[in-house]
Amino acid sequence: MMPGAVCPLTGSFTGWGIDYGLQHMQVAVGARPGIVKDWQVTAWAYGHLFLNLSGNVVMSSAVLGSTVEQTAQSLCGRLVPELKPFPPQALWRRVLNTAKLLRYCLRAPTVVEQFARELQEFRIDEKPDSIAMCEELVGKSAFFDHAMAVHIQSSALSGFLCSIVENMVSGRSNDSTQQEQGETVRLLAGASGVESAVMLEELDKLIDRIAAHPDAQQRFQQASIADALAWLSGAPDIAPAYAAFLRTNGHRGYRELCMRDPAWRDEPAPLIQSMQAAVHARLVTGGHAPLQTHTIDWPSLSRGLRWALPKAHDAIRRREQTKSQLVEVAHRFKRGFYHLGQLLQSQGALPDADLVNFFSVAELPEFVAAPSAEAVANAVARREALAYQQRFEFPGDFRGHTAPLEARTIDNSDGVLHGAPPRAAWWKASPASPTRWRKRHSCNRGKS
After folding, report:
1. Looking at CB atoms within 10 Å, which of 220, 325, 360, 425 has the fewest?
2. To the nearest whole number, what is the mean pLDDT of the chain?
């Protein structure tokens, strides 16, 4: 979800929001006594965000049925033998916490409905001066944390029901086979009306419409991005569909929760570039394979699956709805922070508006109140360092403090096989802190 290095504003704003949302879940079910400002579940180093595996396994000591192995499988897609559980809470407390977890999951629909109403009322006003604008953003930043907590609660219910479906398919509470996992995925993929899937369907129809236009190749596919966008926005038979797509999905984009990466609505170039490639593929092949919607033979399912699967589908739709809402909140904040950057530039405090992204949220109020050349120079240095940090690669999981892997010369000659040896010996040789970490990759198995 957040691959590569991120600017300090994103690290401090989005990174903390993720930590807050996960802490909120753990506190709600009794795994932690309270939310603390010290990061517990995530980390930020060398410009990159990481997941704290040890911070995530506190659930296994607090809730019945939750294990370190399940946590590792969920977050890493495999077991992490070196990851150790915390001492278990008393049995009566684990029973109580399990009931709290069930209540936390089952309350998700109500919480999501309430949040939809809150989002309708939420505004970030563009203030005329930098001090007022900074106060507006910092004062309302808790709403982003709240949006993250709502999305994680929605995701928890989805994960809970999807696990029930998998257990029903396999007939066991764990250790389902690959074939059983595949059947579970097929059944879950039969959910209709999932917002992220609907977005792709709408984009597919728009691309089909463009490819069928007689001017598509010259005026769109082969044109510069600026000329393609001008044609797309002005063609009478195409422009309304494009505008409608942006109205619904314009808050989405690459690294959607990054405060520096613009949404499609604000900077459509990445979207246009992808659409040009898709139109080219349509023109070359003469068509495309339509998006597949899995059909489900409901009468052939067991009574339990006929009961559980619709509920799992509802939860998947709700999870994608709250993901979109979270991105919408992030979009409003990134617009607000950019406006703050413009104000600081106009008053001579920053050489350009983009530099606002290279202050942490905590640093901004002091700088806005009393801009300094030293702070500007520090922000400039951070921006210059970001491109260097983007090249860093890290071990998939590690203990204690991490460091980027050293660049290696790769032998690409014929007959050379590249691979990774087992890392158990590396782990055993590391007596450092027991805390385990995992780099956040874009796939990350759908986790927030």
Report:
1. 425
2. 89
